[in-house]
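Hi V.,

Quick status before I head out on leave. The structure for the redesign project is tokenized and pasted below; the design run finished overnight.
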């Protein structure tokens, strides 16, 4: 067991010295020490441990120490995970980063210097995305919005696009166009409170650029088609949802984007403050000025129509709208300054009116691409189980499990073969499946077309193609074998 150590030891590298105090025959202690290291430490040691001291020192100084300066330990591991997702087109869990990297290294016949040079290139991209300081101010603006939404799940795709731009495969205009579609998709998902757990599968599919057949935009639009909220969804949500209480500062982000769209200037997100026009806590003056003020505030107080921005610390507290208008008219924020110009009073009708106007504007800013105008993509061929693919009406011809191919003629047979495989690798997997209520209901009850597995367990197979793919995908995630499962359709 060899661990790379520099002369000037970091705290983590000093773990190496602890080996002097450990009986190396005590494999339990050694195992615990080894896995107390972070994924980034393990990858570093893996890349450098087989080299002589001269090459170790050179590569450490030339690449690794520069990468290390970009990130904290946790961010470093997340970078490696996103890097591997981009490279392998498979889901990579945090606890599998090191094992996945070793497998990627050997599969692609890499050497340490080539591997480190590639990691350094993408670490620079990743650092630029984290800090929103790429060469493009427009892309930086998109990155700021994505980071506020805490949607770094799309970073693997952006890493791929940045490399393509560097290699002159696309220009900045195309990269920004593609990134903005993803930004709009994420914003709509979050405002509409739709599930976002499928985004990682879409990203995995998008990172396989060969399947895009040189038309990245068409490929991206097709992959987003099924789950992209439309204008009516977005407008209804903005009318009904208390945006102010949603996670990820969604209300503030929406207001900042609206202001940026008006002024074409970048707003300092940290300095901006959200102002409730009708305040969160009403006093008697508001109740006298607005009929049914409490009810209106409960229903609409947190919607976009009752919110605006201030860029200063002027405390307007719970002053009435009559008093606030003077402050608003002097605001350096156009979004706020226009309020007294348009409205003489503040009540339910004015809040709804402003909500509709701002909703229309947000629909244009975070536009949904015209998916119907795009020709349907030919999805024939092999797909990973995590890909977002519409298999309705498609015929399966093969399922691949851990690189072994099984010929199939139906989705039903795909399910049976997969479940037999899951049992064969570890019978305890069925305990995990039975503990999941939705899987238990789909597979082990209400039999109409059951099949008997190799273990003599009956399972229901009368499901649509989409449902069977969802079942297989969920079980693969539960059993941590998603990277072993692929299928082919014609």
């Amino acid at each position: 067991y060899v661990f790379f150590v520099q002369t000037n030891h970091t705290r983590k590298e000093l773990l190496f010295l602890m080996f002097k105090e450990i009986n190396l025959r005590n494999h339990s202690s050694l195992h615990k020490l080894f896995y107390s290291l972070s994924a980034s430490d393990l990858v570093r040691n893996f890349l450098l441990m087989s080299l002589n001291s001269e090459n170790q020192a050179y590569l450490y100084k030339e690449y690794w120490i520069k990468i290390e300066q970009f990130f904290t330990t946790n961010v470093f591991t997340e970078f490696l995970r996103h890097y591997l997702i981009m490279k392998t087109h498979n889901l990579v869990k945090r606890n599998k980063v090191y094992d996945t990297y070793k497998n990627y290294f050997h599969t692609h016949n890499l050497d340490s210097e080539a591997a480190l040079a590639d990691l350094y290139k993408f670490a620079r991209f990743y650092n630029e995305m984290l800090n929103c300081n790429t060469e493009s101010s427009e892309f930086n603006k998109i990155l700021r919005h994505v980071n506020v939404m805490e949607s770094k799940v799309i970073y693997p795709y952006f890493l791929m696009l940045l490399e393509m731009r560097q290699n002159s495969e696309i220009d900045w205009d195309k990269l920004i166009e593609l990134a903005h579609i993803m930004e709009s998709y994420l914003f709509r998902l979050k405002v509409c409170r739709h599930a976002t757990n499928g985004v990682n599968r879409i990203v995995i599919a998008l990172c396989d650029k060969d399947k895009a057949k040189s038309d990245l935009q068409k490929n991206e639009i097709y992959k987003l088609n099924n789950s992209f909220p439309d204008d009516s969804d977005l407008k209804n949500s903005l009318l009904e949802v208390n945006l102010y209480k949603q996670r990820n500062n969604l209300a503030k982000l929406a207001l900042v984007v609206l202001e940026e769209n008006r002024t074409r200037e970048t707003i300092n997100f940290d300095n901006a403050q959200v102002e409730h026009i009708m305040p969160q806590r009403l006093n008697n003056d508001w109740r006298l000025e607005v009929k049914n003020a409490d009810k209106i505030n409960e229903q609409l107080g947190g919607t976009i129509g009752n919110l605006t921005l201030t860029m200063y610390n002027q405390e307007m507290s719970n002053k009435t709208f009559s008093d606030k208008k003077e402050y608003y008219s002097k605001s350096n924020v156009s979004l706020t300054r226009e309020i007294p110009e348009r409205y003489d009073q503040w009540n339910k009708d004015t809040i709804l009116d402003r909500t509709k106007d701002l909703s229309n504007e947000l629909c244009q800013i975070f536009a949904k691409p015209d998916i119907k105008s795009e020709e349907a993509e030919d999805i024939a061929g092999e797909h990973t189980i995590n890909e977002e693919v519409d298999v309705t009406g498609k015929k399966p011809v093969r399922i691949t499990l851990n690189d072994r191919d099984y010929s199939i003629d139906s989705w039903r047979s795909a399910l049976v073969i997969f479940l037999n495989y899951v049992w064969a690798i570890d019978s305890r997997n069925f305990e995990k499946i039975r503990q999941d209520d939705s899987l238990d209901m789909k597979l082990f009850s209400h039999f109409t077309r059951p099949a008997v597995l190799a273990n003599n367990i009956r399972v229901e197979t009368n499901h649509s193609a989409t449902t069977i793919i969802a079942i297989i995908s969920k079980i693969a995630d539960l059993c941590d074998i998603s990277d072993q499962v692929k299928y082919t359709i014609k």
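Above is the designed sequence. Residues 1-131 form one domain.

G. will cover questions while I'm gone.

Best,
W.
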